[in-house]
Amino acid sequence: MPDNKVVKEFxxxxxxxxILPGDPxxxxxxxxxxxxxxxxxxxxxxxxxxxxxxxxxxxxxxxxMLISVRGGGHNAGGLGICDDGLVIDLSQMRYTHVxxxxxxxxxxxxxxxxDVDHAGHAxxxxxxxxxxxxTGVGGLALGGGVGYLSRKYGLTIDSILEVDMVLADGSxxxxxxxxxxxLYWAIRGGGGNFGIVTxxxxxxxxxxxxxxxxxxxxxxxxxKILKWYRDFMTNAQEDLYGFFATLxxxxxxxxxxLHGKKMCGVIWNYLGPHDxxxxxxxxxxxxxxxxxxxxxxxxxxxxxxxxxxxxxGLQWYWRADFIKEIPDEAVAQHVxxxxxxxxxxxxxxxxPINGAAHKIGKNDTPWAYRDANWAQVMVGVDPDPANKDKIxxxxxxxxxxxxxxxxxxxxxxxxxxxxxxxxxxxxKDNYDRLVKVKSKYDPNNLFRVNQNIxxxx
Length: 457
Prior knowledge:
By secondary structure, the chain is of the alpha+beta class. It folds into three domains: 4-89, Uridine Diphospho-n-acetylenolpyruvylglucosamine Reductase, domain 2 (2-Layer Sandwich); 96-206 and 429-441, Uridine Diphospho-n-acetylenolpyruvylglucosamine Reductase, domain 3 (2-Layer Sandwich); 209-414, 3-Layer(aba) Sandwich (Vanillyl-alcohol Oxidase, Chain A, domain 3), CATH 3.40.462.20. It contains 15 helices and 19 strands. The protein has helices spanning 4-12, 26-29, 50-62, 113-121, 137-143, 150-153, 181-187, 222-235, 277-280, 282-286, 299-303, 328-339, 388-402, 420-427, 431-441, and strands spanning 17-19, 43-46, 67-70, 86-89, 96-99, 104-108, 125-126, 160-166, 172-176, 196-203, 205-206, 209-218, 240-248, 262-270, 291-292, 295-298, 315-323, 347-352, 374-382.
């Protein structure tokens, strides 16, 4: 840790501010989405602009500080924060600009996806993203990005046209198909290993009001519904998206008679003509859901539907896998652990990543599992830290039971601290190429608080 005079001079050099232990607001500034994470950085630098990011990178490097980069703070393992190091916080760099002529959206590195949804909606545009609108753009986009638009428009990384970046040596570069092509390849799935992205340029896609929402069945119907779903979703038209879940029904706006009930279900998003939606969803409705709330819904509303149920500060423990097929043996495990959901917030999701996401080659981006049909995640979640062991145990046991039926690796944004072998498995034969790019742009591994790509020594 540099001395007080050096730290003071650093703070005075920023348009933003630094927050130190003992300062008012320090404990709030170090909080992240996952309440299980309790790290205490030496300095939090809240950057106002790119110049602040450059200054912060240089300061951290010159003073041999551990550096983490925080966008939205949603990362499963809390990788936007670090103990005893420097947190480069981008949350003030929160802006969007829509170009209706090119149908592109420029997004600041500190934005959340709700910002992008709101900005694009006025122009009938959206970018593929996740299912929680408070998620940070940077972390999700750099790791891949799966959600309601994946089957129609691909992963989030498939819509990245260009990024602005600050590298480990403090230099500022662009990466696109025409400039620093190796870096452009690497950041589309390789995470925050190569520098700090200060802005993204995304290709927008035509989306306004979808036909979406949940269909839910009693948990005792999980076997029947999941066996139907696995075949239906692999053959569905690309306009239709639906992720499968086991869950406990929360309070309002759900009907009172369902509150606290364990259920399975599919949350839908249909992008085709609304007058065809009933026909497209006929098979699901023929299965007589116990709750059906699917209808016209603006995209920003759909993408923020679960925000209220998963606020910042809950305890989270994650496990994940890529899935190609869901054999009957795997269905049996989903039935078993769905009935044993340990707390009302705990859940399991199967996100479809076929359709348009399959049209990109497995080596065209670092996302090596283009042949997988689902990104699966099970999460133990609860507000009470006293339930940490309970939710962790359920998640680990569920993962151990289901992992033998997986494709091998997992979506890196869903990984906890699971070791280097797990990172390598998740990039498969793209890992060595990522190492070459890492070795070129960050040879000393300055950016290592992530699912790390280790540079060649």
